[in-house]
Amino acid sequence: MKKILIIDDEADICMLLKRFLSKKDFQVEYATEAAAGLELLDTFLPNLVLCDFRLGKVDGREVLVKIKEKFPHLPVIIMTGYSDIKIAIDVMKLGAFDYLTKPLFPDEIFHIIQKALAAAADLALGETEKTDDDEPQKPADEAKKPRSRKSNLPTGERSIFGTSPISQHLIKQIALVAPTNYSVIIYGESGSGKEVVAREIHRQSKRADKLFIAMDCGAISPQLAGSELFGHEKGSFTGALDQKIGHFELANGGTLFLDEVGNLSYDVQISLLRVVQERKLRRIGGNKEVEIDVRIIVASNEKLWEASRSGKFREDLFHRFNEFSIDVPPLRERREDILMYAHYFLNLTNAELGKNVADFAQDVQDLFFTYPWYGNLRELKNVMKRATLLCDSTEIKMKHLPFEITNYDKVFFTEKAETVARQEPQQTVETPRAAPAKTPISLKSASMEAESEMILKALQQTNFNKSKAAELLNIDRKTLYNKIKFYNL
């Protein structure tokens, strides 16, 4: 269970937030004074802090700096009733993850908390030194990494990439485009590390000392997307009780990363095109134009050129983003890297649990190389966490792995066989028992029928995306096309 610490001098707000967040399965503690809150950091060891900007005579900046001195990677969200651009920029430069303006809205609070915790979880994929998203942060007084006051990325941070030829090609692409100001589209499956690539581009760019702001376009409602991107003025719509600064303004001078950009509504895409073209924006309900200098990196798990041709994504916006593109390969296409990543996640979990699991049994290693890893690095990380927890020796064995991993082939083919069996006509009572002998069952025919059903189900599961269906069936696209034509599917 994740832990959240609330620091606010209004006890009523603390109680309301604790009640709300407890219902969301968080463990919550609060303090109404800055000193008491800082003391709780060492004993409660939270995964996230909600801190008011005004704590009596204490300025929220002071508290934020003290938190970051002890816990550099602990996400801190600042709450303020004094919404202005200066406060927002100041707290973000000092390392705050985001800020909230009062009055607080439950959906907005929960959404930002989820983003902050997800960012902390993904940080483990992008650091060479140990950090784990589920582990309560420990004081870093003895060995702190230097941190730029203008950046929300620790200086010296490097991303973890494999040693396979395909991973080395990815590294070269990042190094090639990073120093430029080109917009970049990053393609890749869920969990393959698209945000890690985006952060590495920012780290190697001339904007590395500025902010890197990430927004998950697939996790926010269409009604809030415009406000999140461009901000809004007080009274611009129902519920807009205060001014809000959008991600574009917060990222000014730095990099804005839009994950799953294809999920933005068509109306928001129109507004986004104008901002990208003119490098100016107007907050929702505002008249003043704000000039911006932001590098844009977007990510998608579907090909945006296909979405633009089908009308789901604006073609002119696609061409604005498509100055350079990078494909992040799924884990099953860089199998030489699997054991390296497995050991990396194993070491992280060992440190978290205080264990000393050293290696994997040979049959486990063989399985890792053959399993398709549809969840990519995220799935591998979760498997490592579970296996290490269950491991009662120094070696992870098959019994420590999840059922869906060890029995993948059995489950997959059993489902297909059951589907075929359900669709076969049942023998009626009137049919003589000798009838089957007159029309003997052909093993080849049954095999072909089962294969046809498997292909059809794979196509249905992937919404008839042939590339994804081929991956699901573990065959190449040419083979799939030939079989579709053969079975007239």
How would you portray this structure in words?
It contains 21 helices and 16 strands. α13 crosses α15, α17 packs across α19 (443-461) and α19 crosses α20. The strands form five sheets. A five-stranded parallel beta sheet has the order 2-1-3-6-7, with helices on both faces. A five-stranded parallel beta sheet has the order 9-10-13-8-14. A two-stranded antiparallel sheet has the order 4-5. The two termini are 47 Å apart. With 489 residues, it is α/β, with parallel strands linked by helices.
For the structure shown, list the relevant keywords:
489 residues; alpha/beta; single chain; five-stranded parallel beta sheet
Average of pLDDT: 80
Q: Work out the helicity level.
A: 40-55%
Instruction: Give the strand content.
Output: 5-15%
Assembly level: single chain
The major pleated sheet works out as:
5 strands, parallel
Report Rg.
Answer: 26 Å
* Terminal residue distance: 47 Å
Strand order of the largest sheet: 2-1-3-6-7
Shape annotation: globular
| DSSP, total strands | 16
Unreliable stretches:
127-158, 412-417, 426-441
The number of helical elements comes to 21
What structural class do helix, strand and pairing data support?
alpha/beta
